[in-house]
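Recall the central idea of this unit: under ordinary conditions, the amino acid sequence of a chain determines the structure it adopts. In this exercise we apply that idea directly, starting from the sequence alone.
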Amino acid sequence: MKRFFTGAVLFAALLYAAAELTLQSPPDDGVIRLRWATDENPARNLQTATFAKLQLLLKEENVVDWDRFRLALRDPAASPSAAAPARDVLQRLAAALDANAPDAVTGEDPGPLLDAVNRLLDRPEIFAGIDGGGLELSRDGQLLIAKPDDERTEVEVIALNRRILEAALPGVVRPARRIEVAVESGAREKLIVQCATGTGPDIVDVYGINQMHAYVGAGILLDLTPHASKMGFGPENTFRAIKDNLTVEGRQYRFPCNVWANCVVYNRRVFDDHGVPYPAEGWTWTDFIRASRKIVAGPGASGEKHLALANYNNVWMFGDLLIGHGGSLFTPDGLVSRLDTPEATAALRLYHDMMHVHRVIPTPAEAAAMSSQGGWGSGGIVWFCDGRAAMIIIGRWLLNRLGQYPDLVPHLGTAVLPRAKGQPSRGQTDCRAAGINVKSPHREAALKFLQYLAGPEYGRLIVQDGDSLPPNPALARDGDALANTLINDPNFHQPFADAMTTARPLDPSPFIDAGQVERWVKETVERVENELVAPEEGVRALAAEINQRIRRNLERRGDLQRKFAQVTGRPWTRDWRHADVRR
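Accordingly, the structure predicted from this sequence is:
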């Protein structure tokens, strides 16, 4: 057995060595290449390219000697760099500045000059024909200048022009740190293992508060707290409603890439076809059901039948109903489930009744039948976009899909979620947020990327591509701020801004795995959908199961017993009862 074990270890070592030899090493050009584990949205390519460009733009702190810098651009012959290649570079730049921003060089304010120079850096013709001879280009500059002009990307054009400028003014312009980001999409099941073994990506998208708690528990996310506020991406730099979604026990582990709260998006054409008024301000779930029943009652004037609501995510809808009814998952201390309260019971009862009593949401059997006919598509989203459903409850990220349905866009309207009795319009909120692999070899560069997520350049991209709301609330203050090329009507976007003023995240508990709770909630909702259990019985059993697991976890884990003492002010004992800390 010992020989077998030794042989197996040696064989594994040989395989590892062989793999290392066959791996393609990154080019030795001084460029920091971050890896970002995110989704397959094509917009990520523009977002990463914009980040790379921002690292190359000339900033005030990059200029060591402003007097020499201005002199070189005003009178290249008097430049401290006497070599002809450097004078050629400066003369070209000076001529372009004179033609495009003649007052920028002479002004005292460095801002206009920096803006003018940066506008020229993305022009491939500005230094066209310069072969680098006589200039001490950096390694990446040498590689870029050797590349055919028509093969350089936009980022590479800026990088080369910046390197040429640095070489023409050595000691005057500091070299820029070049950082690029490669998008890695695909299966995330192995992410924890990859990060734990040092082979994972540098930046990790964390989907929802439950996944954040799972990743923090696995020890793969960097504690951002010492850096975030100083660099402008602390919890105070995003929406107040999701501040707690970024932290675990007071420590920050992620920052939003986008933020979402659901609204009702409706098809005016379908409403008109059935003679149903559009949602009114302050509408209730009773109003929603009344309108929906009219839509499903029979064919419209066109002769077409329509669904009332394209329900594509049952857990999200239950979450919106739960928070809309004033409910929550746990007591504030996290020790007791609140899923058996009147609020949670009413939420699940309403969901059940909309499906099985009022018949305004497709049952699982009906959805499966439509899917077999090629109609249901991606969880109901395609069904709505095809014009076969009147409404969908969804975030602003629906705009990512709407570019494929230009005939639908002019007919869309939006409304905040209907109100439950005695409650304001309110649903859940969360975010897709980026964290940093604790074993990333490029920690400082990854922190710069999170800083970029909080900035206006990234936020404007999110507004334009419609990928929910930008992390920076100032860029999502109202419908005017959110209007974009696809839908320039502020009235369409206003409800998404309004929703964030009342939205609330679902609350996790430190005493139970958040992913386990999510799975149990989903199982319960599906049992209610299939009428295997009544809503009241379902939430009672769910709460009991959660409470039993919390009790078991406390009996087995000393760290949770210490947490118990911290939140209750008394030591944990085996005879503690949920009733002692109840609601």
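The first helix runs from residue 2 to 22.
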